[in-house]
């Protein structure tokens, strides 16, 4: 069974016009005609992605549906982003521990993961294809007024959590969050943020920080990107002043001295990571990015059990334990009814935050 339809009920309580994000700079609500164009563009991109993804599913299906011999993981973001990294670490762990053989990762980026989700729901019954999901997708569903959501798939497990870091260029004039907050207070729209897609956990963290600082969400200048890799390049090119992304995606840039970290969204400092948390600095920025996997709609129970066994074995493998440590991810495995309740609650919380902030 798919989890409770109450998620859709929660989304329906939000004003659809307030939930749609069509702009890039700044994050101000677009006029009605622009939002209409945005929906058309979303639809065109979704259709194109569905066509290509469906063709791919037929091709992969021709090799057989035994997930241990042929398994596809869809990352609903560009190469180099958090979902991409998560999917490829899953791929590697499955291969190294002999859990599955021919494991492929396919990227379908766009619209906070909802382009990938829209493509995925057309693969009904394709039991050897899984989709990476997480907190960012919940925001994307609301922001893009997505016609599909996680009630349209069958959740397998929440697997891990990671934390986002606010970084600035090495030459930036701010060395601390306090210094940056003071500068932002004096120039709300002039300071440019970048991160994942509109409605992503990166975007919501910026909005939450604005709320703490008493800055109206309409005054945020946010440049959405399909993944952390693009966001980092946007920062390094000087197009943005602050980037928000998962720590593991930018750790090498921090170590190389190309960027400076201001703070991280973890509840407490990460081991061997000398970056203060927003909590210890007195800022109430505490959203957590979680990642998991879902199966296609219409999957037979025996096929679902087969792919869940693969996910369970991977989560318990030595290779995955190494991936968690290497990426500074936290094991947060959750499945069954507890997962269903968590998804309902997290979707409601995300929808309410988006509505409250007027994004």
TrEMBL record:
Q: Which SUPFAM superfamilies match?
A: Periplasmic binding protein-like II
Kindly state which keywords UniProt assigns to this record, in alphabetical order: Membrane, Transmembrane, Transmembrane helix
- The UniProt record lists the keyword Membrane: yes
Q: Which Pfam families match?
A: TctC (PF03401)
Q: What is the superkingdom listed in this entry's lineage? A: Bacteria
Q: Which sequence ranges are marked TM in the entry?
A: 36-59
Alphabetical list of InterPro entries matching this protein = BUG, Bug_dom1
Q: Which family does it belong to?
A: Belongs to the UPF0065 (bug) family.
Q: What is this protein called?
A: Tripartite tricarboxylate transporter substrate-binding protein
The species this protein belongs to is: Microbacterium betulae
């Amino acid at each position: 069974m798919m989890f409770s339809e109450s998620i859709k009920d929660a989304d329906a309580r939000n004003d659809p016009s307030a939930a749609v994000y069509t702009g890039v700079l700044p994050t101000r609500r677009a006029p009605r005609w622009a939002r209409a164009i945005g929906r058309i563009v979303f639809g065109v991109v979704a259709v194109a992605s569905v066509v290509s993804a469906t063709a791919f599913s037929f091709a992969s299906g021709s090799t057989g549906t035994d997930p241990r011999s042929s398994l596809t993981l869809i990352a609903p973001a560009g190469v180099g982003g958090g979902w991409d990294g998560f999917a490829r670490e899953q791929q590697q762990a499955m291969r190294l521990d002999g859990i599955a053989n021919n494991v492929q990762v396919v990227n379908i980026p766009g619209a906070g993961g909802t382009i990938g989700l829209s493509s995925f729901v057309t693969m009904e019954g394709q039991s050897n294809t899984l989709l990476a999901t997480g907190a960012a997708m919940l925001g994307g569903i609301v922001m893009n007024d997505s016609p599909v959501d996680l009630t349209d798939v069958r959740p397998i497990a929440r697997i891990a959590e990671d934390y986002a870091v606010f970084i600035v260029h090495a030459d930036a004039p701010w060395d601390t969050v306090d210094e940056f907050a003071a500068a932002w207070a004096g120039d709300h729209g002039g300071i440019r943020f970048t991160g994942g897609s509109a409605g992503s956990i990166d975007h919501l963290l910026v909005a939450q920080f604005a709320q703490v600082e008493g800055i109206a969400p309409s005054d945020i200048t946010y440049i959405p990107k399909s993944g952390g890799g693009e966001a980092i390049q946007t920062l390094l090119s000087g197009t943005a002043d602050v980037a928000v992304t998962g720590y593991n995606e930018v750790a090498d840039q921090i170590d190389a001295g190309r960027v400076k970290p201001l703070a991280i969204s973890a509840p407490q400092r990460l081991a061997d990571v000398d970056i203060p948390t927003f909590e210890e600095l007195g800022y109430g920025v505490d959203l957590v990015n979680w990642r998991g996997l879902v199966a296609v709609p219409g999957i037979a129970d025996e096929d679902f059990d087969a792919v869940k066994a693969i996910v369970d074995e991977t989560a318990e493998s030595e290779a995955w334990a190494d991936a968690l440590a290497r990426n500074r991810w936290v094991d947060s495995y959750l499945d069954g009814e507890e997962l269903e309740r968590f998804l309902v609650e997290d979707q409601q919380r995300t929808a309410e935050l988006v509505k409250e902030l007027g994004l």
